[in-house]
Amino acid sequence: MKFNLSVKTLLLIQALLVLMLIPIDIVFGEVRLDYVLPLYVLVWIVTYSKILQCKD
User: Fold this and answer.
1) 48 versus 36: which is more confidently predicted?
2) Global pTM?
3) What is the DSSP letter of 29?
């Protein structure tokens, strides 16, 4: 399965993941990076590889 997402979309997803930390902090009383960090790293790697492909 191959997803074709633009760089702008991937950056928007990253921003939403970071903004999600605020409600997580409010609801749980502490920020648990165990839930958000793996997904953020995955999106970051895909974004970085997409940017490198665009420069070629």
Assistant:
1) 48
2) 0.73
3) S
